[in-house]
Specification:
The chain has 388 residues and is mainly beta. It is 5% helix and 47% strand.
Length: 388
Amino acid sequence: MSDANLTKVLYAPETAFAETPDLGSTLQELRFTSESLAHVKETVVSEEIRADRARADLIQVGLSAEGSVDVESILTAYNDLILAALLASAWTTGQDTGLTLTSDIATNTITATAGTFSTATQAAKLVKIAGMTDPALNRVYTIVSATSTVLTVVPGQITVDEVATASCTADYKYARNGTTLSSFLIEKQFSGITPAHYVAMIGAVVNEFSMSLEARAVAQMSFGFMGARLIESTATHGDGSPTGPSTNPILNTTANVATLFYDGAALGANVMSFEMALNNNLRERPAIAKLFTLEHGKGTIDLTGTLNTYFEDATLLQAFLDHDSAALLVPLFDANGNGMTVFLPEIKFPAGSPVAEGINTDVMLPIEFQALLDAALGYVIQIDQLDA
């Protein structure tokens, strides 16, 4: 028998699509809750007419692979897969140096009295400050708005007023939706049977990415893959010395999700749940004499979701009625001080109305949204990730 508790999921980037696994590659182990990676065989039943009424053959004409890996949200643990889901080529990273900074609790601001914040830093939604005299100020901040000299951060993150601290730095790291398709080898290790079996999906690309935040629950994410095929072995497809999984804590929506920000201000209504689903609309490219796809074609990014709020503020309802657009910022932090934000610079609301479902219930406003290209900023989604 094979126990699910003895199963591991690991991955490594491919250097070429659906390549023969490089047995020298070091695999990275993932923390996960479930997986559905499966071999998909395309067959055709023979239509030959036979006097004995039998079917002559079941003919294999194609192969592919598909499925998802579901996880509990752990900051920095899934950065490779998030980058691949955005079809981004790399994280945009950098550091501003030589800053003299002051902090102000009353205005929730960090001000550069010498030096300036770069254009890239101003575009970030997370910034890590270092070099301040009080160690409580050296941390990752969520940026609500920014200029070349002033960062306005989420209320409560600045806990000390400090004046003119020299030689400070500001780090940033973010990625936006792009056009670079990355593929992986994903290996499932079944060690609960003898001998152990290793099933790998090659040519795995991230077609779908979702995030779910429900009140009083663990934050969830899921990565949906399309692949070339599965291959099976009694030996690992890596070098046998995988990198262990992240040890960062699991996020929950009570302690680790800050107030959602709508057009630069805290959302006026309390949120019961937030759901987001990104679909890259990838497609296979079949060809004669090829059993599996040549590669995967890139499609339009569709990013939709739902905000389910208590109906205690009419801002979202009015935006729906007026067909207005707005920006949405979702900030997350873990107990170690690592941070992540999801920023959608332009969303519109195709559906949403307050509902009274029955006696002894709250009036809720479940409002659907679709993320669109922000013409000024030039992207649909930006995700920031910074280590403490």
